[in-house]
Design a protein that fits this description.
It is built from 15 helices and 20 strands. By secondary structure, the chain is an alpha/beta fold. Helices cover about 40% and strands about 20% of the residues. The longest helix is centred in the N-terminal third of the chain and has 26 residues.
Amino acid sequence: MNLSTYKQEEFIDFSQEENVKKLQEAFRKVEAQFGQYAPMIIDGKRVDREDTFVSINPNQPSQVIGQYPVGTPEDVDRAVEAAEKAFDSWRRVPPVDRAALCVHLANLFRKYRYELIALMVLEVGKSWEEADAEVAEGIDHFEYIAREMLRYAKGRKLHPFPGEMNEYRYYPLGVGAVISPWNYPIGISIGMISAAIVAGNTVVFKPSSDCPAISQFLMKIFEEGGLPPGVVNLVYGSGSIVGEYLARHPRIKFVGFTGSKDVGQKIALYAATLSEGQYWFKRTILELGGKNAIIVDSSADLEEAVNGIMAASFGYQGQKCSACSRAVVLEDVYDQFVSMISEKTNKMEVGPVKEHYFCGAVINKAGFDKILGYIEIGKQEGKLVAGGETLDREGYFIKPTIFVDVDEKARIAQEEIFGPVLSVIKAKDFDDALRIANNTIYGLTGGVYSKNPYHLSKAKDEFYVGNLYLNRKNTGAWIGSHPFGGYNMSGTNSKLGGPDYLLNYLQSKTIAQKVSL
């Protein structure tokens, strides 16, 4: 396999009638299967439970996607045991063969691309373009990490030492937990799973209860692709019971988690606490929240800035850890910026994403209520200039919302809302804007719109985020080009989709062998 052959997957052009017809057919195909029961999968076997839960379409809550078993701690034990058994043989598979299997899985993603898009549109409410971009990301993860494994399989060169032959090799860790979110049910889960398995590890996979149908489809692809039973095991259940038990489990070597700051803190604590029978320190790969800011200075192209901030704030209804939730605008262009963005945002249409709306429903009733609660807080902390309303129809729809004249210490300027709510904050000058942007416990993504080279240069050094975007929106990371992961309470800066990411799933060994002269 040639390392130089990696190429990011192109997106589907939905302005082409042929592609629209393919997606409409995929909608019909997946909806024909809705309402059925699907089990957990442990050691390649189907596992049922009497207690069940349902997944619904957030744009049409009366539509039941499917019914699924509620897992238990005993199911976690069984899954860990299956993963341990599979690890003994999987770790011995040559890295080149594990890499080849990942490339094969990427091809299966291409085969099922439209069905995966349709499932994401219907189960988690992504727009057509957002869903397609995520399937492309899943393909990129497999392709990129396969080539990364071949690079790491060569080991590293060491400085020569007289009379010795020295080697530096990488080996897998063992059984790991992958606890993934609903907002990137393919992009994040496949990012973690692909890295884990290509390195020779095995996985217990616990997805969010808001996207069980998508996780079932992923398991179908793994099975069709020839991944041995037990290498990836699917367990459902609540985060507070099954997720916590899995993260605490004494036989788990690493935990990959993407989700809230509060849960991430608990996982870090669990990992630092040795359980009975545990004789290793657990690795944690944590990607948590963000309160991301984009700065707009006096030299910026305001049209470009407004469009980029709207896309970053309201794309996927603001339900991205990378989403822009604060616009920090210099005072001499502030009024013009506010006028432009409020006018454009008030014209945005909201509706069911299956019907090809850009903004659809938020994920569930709990998220809907939480966002509306923050909107009420925002009415006390700023001036509402756009949105703030729901739609009088079935589904969890909230119009893109903007508050202006927000104090930098206000709750809506400090707390992660995870919805289509933007706070606009006025800054005196660029240094003040940079200070405001950094004035948060998070440090995930940030952006600057400016034509001033000095401002851009200063932001590179002093805007304290893991991913900084200049004169473009701060969402939409490409695998291999934008390694993703933040600072502070945004996570462990693990850099998904980058050249260091695989190190999270490997341990190194130094071998020194005396040679006869």
